[in-house]
Design a protein that fits this description.
Length: about 400
């Protein structure tokens, strides 16, 4: 197979000359969609940093064919809603049309800042990326919940359950994942929005107080909240409110540090789904770490689309879409990837640092099918009737799922 990597510097000039384009070649290190006799240099406008981040789009591997929908987006080009308490940016199906099953939000709260009391029609799964926060919730039976969360803690609020998030002394940033691609974090049911749009006489009647109790509420209160500054709260105990119905039994928090990783040859994976985090009934996660040189093996998922979030490192993924179609995408920290059900794929660490990313599914359980394991557990003659492989290949097949390989 031909080498398809950046042709840089003098190599680029030589390649351009070979392609008969010497007269208009540029003496720089810019990557080019040029591979021997194929392709040519870019003469028109270009965004070179973007091209360098996406080398497999500029010059796909020769095994790529056909045309898949875009399977990459980034929080870094999403609209950011900025407020005096922090900010939020989201990737929904409007930004990333293929992502129909899941949407995501990246949110920053300064110390003490509050993500307003609210609820919504999607379940909310969360991962703390940095810092710490206090979360509260109450269910339909009047059972309440309060907990503090820190880096690498997960939490989950079922659809319709009202909740809040308040940063503690460090401030925080977290990822939110919703089990609906059309969900908008900017369209949730906010406490102040409802208060502002309910007649004062109704508020008075509902809460059993005179209308004057609401005199100090500004008419535009709902425009001042969503994310807003506040004092850092005191101890967790000071935030506990006794409920006669008790507390929510099924914890809304899962500490990733309590989840034993599955060690793999090229990294490790932590699976968090309804089997070990019972509140996560509709959202399953795999937190994957791929060491330099390692690769999340060729596999697919038999139960759902996959929504990815890249936490750190660099990766390349080729998605196989049947009918001779395969497209390759490159990812960096802050990017979102997507794999439609049940397309085959791998995720290779293309950097020199560890790669960490999330595989998220709108499903109760994490499920994947390994190509290697499938072939290992099929009759040898049947496999060899399909592909002319030698004995080394057959003896290297693994009856146990490798998950993350290293060669
Ligand atoms: Mn929420
Ligand atoms: Mn996958």
């Amino acid at each position: 197979m031909r080498r398809r990597e950046f042709i840089a510097g003098s190599a680029a000039a030589a390649a351009a000359a070979a392609a008969g384009a010497a007269a208009i070649s540029r003496a720089d290190d810019a990557p080019q969609p040029l591979d021997g006799d194929e392709g040519g240099t870019i003469l028109g406008p270009r965004n070179e940093p973007l091209e360098r981040e996406n080398p497999d789009r500029l010059l796909p591997p020769t095994t790529d064919a056909g045309y898949l929908p875009n399977l990459k987006f980034s929080f870094d080009i999403a609209h950011t809603r900025v407020s005096n308490g922090g900010w939020a940016r989201q990737v929904t199906v409007d930004d990333f049309p293929i992502a129909k099953t899941i949407s995501g939000v990246d949110m920053r709260l300064k110390p003490g800042a509050i993500r307003e009391l609210h609820w919504h029609d999607a379940a909310e799964w969360s991962l703390m990326l940095a810092g710490n926060a206090r979360i509260t919730a109450m269910d339909f039976a009047g059972r309440n919940f309060v907990a503090d969360v820190g880096k690498d803690d997960l939490w989950l609020f079922p659809a319709g359950v009202p909740h809040s998030i308040q940063a503690l002394d460090e401030g925080c940033e977290f990822l939110l994942v919703f089990d609906d691609g059309a969900f908008s974090e900017f369209g949730t049911f906010l406490l102040t929005d409802w208060i502002a749009h309910t007649p004062r006489s109704i508020l008075a009647k509902n809460f059993g107080v005179p209308e004057s109790a609401f005199d100090r509420i500004p008419a535009d209160i709902e425009s001042k909240r969503y994310i807003f500054p506040a004092e850092v709260p005191g101890s967790l105990r000071s935030s506990e409110v006794h409920s006669p119905a008790g507390t929510i039994k099924e914890s809304y928090v899962h500490r990733l540090s309590d989840t034993k990783p599955i060690d793999a040859p090229g990294g490790r994976v932590r699976i968090v789904d309804s089997s070990n985090f019972p509140a996560a009934k509709t959202i399953a996660a795999a937190i994957v770490e791929v060491d330099p040189g390692g690769m999340r093996e060729l596999h697919w998922h038999p139960n759902a689309d996959e929504w990815q979030y890249y936490v750190s490192g660099k990766a390349r993924m080729t998605v196989f879409g049947a009918e001779g179609t395969a497209n390759t995408f490159d990812y960096q920290a802050g990017d979102v990837g997507y794999v439609p059900f049940p397309m085959g794929h791998y995720v290779e660490n293309t950097g020199t640092a560890p790669l960490r990313f999330l595989e998220m599914f709108r499903a109760p359980r994490f499920e994947d099918v390994s190509l290697n394991q499938w072939l290992a557990l099929s009759p040898v003659d049947l496999v060899r009737a399909h592909v002319p492989v030698d004995r080394r290949f057959i003896s290297a097949l693994s009856k146990r799922k490798q998950i993350v390989v290293r060669y």
